[in-house]
Amino acid sequence: MKPIKIGIVDDHPIIRDGFKTILEIQDEFLILGTAKNGEEAIKLAESQPDVMLMDIQMPIMDGIEATKIIKKMNPTICILMLTSNSTGQEVIEAISSGASGFLLKDWETAKIIHSIKEALFGNFPFPWSTSSPSAKVKSISWNQLPFPLSSREREIATLLILGYKNEQIASELFLSVGTVKNYITGMYKKFGVKSRRSAILYLNKYI
């Protein structure tokens, strides 16, 4: 089995070297290199990593702008934003730019590894709950949608954009997982999309 190729981008050497150290000792990962700003991240992306861990706030070029450029260069690269205290607007911009999820810099190693693998399987790691400041800004303008959504669909769509998994949505709304899947499938058809990430990007247009 081929190792997962990773690039690490952060302007703080302690963070950058820390992630490199904890990941390169894992047999399943191969660290292709590190970068300290968005411009260097773009050059690093030329080495074709499977995953890039990208800090948001950096000098010269921030992680959001770098993500936009890298995703245009190679849409298959999975970019996970590294953060400790992002604003709601940064979260929205990162998702719209093509980010595949978010990692908190102070997470335990096991959780970081798990989230990287989750993202590669198409899931969307998202560390904040609906009670967090970042989540509170995510207010969808339902009346601007080109079609009406039921109150239940709105509830599920809100949790979907906050990164909840089907099991978490089911628990939050006291529904079965099967019911949640049916609702989400129905919304995919309304949105004209085929994936969770595409649905999130679609909803972000109305935030």
UniProtKB/TrEMBL annotation:
Domain Response regulatory: 5-120
PROSITE patterns per UniProt: HTH_LUXR_2, RESPONSE_REGULATORY
BP terms from Gene Ontology: phosphorelay signal transduction system; regulation of DNA-templated transcription
UniProt superkingdom: Bacteria
Protein name: Response regulator transcription factor
Alphabetized SUPFAM superfamilies for the sequence: C-terminal effector domain of the bipartite response regulators, CheY-like
GO molecular function terms listed in the Swiss-Prot or TrEMBL record: DNA binding
Modified sites of kind 4-aspartylphosphate: 55
Domain HTH luxR-type, chain residue ranges per copy: 142-207
Main localization category: cytoplasm
Entry keyword set: DNA-binding, Phosphoprotein, Transcription, Transcription regulation
Transmembrane regions: none
Keyword Zinc attributed: no
Subcellular location: Cytoplasm
Cellular-component GO terms for this entry: cytoplasm
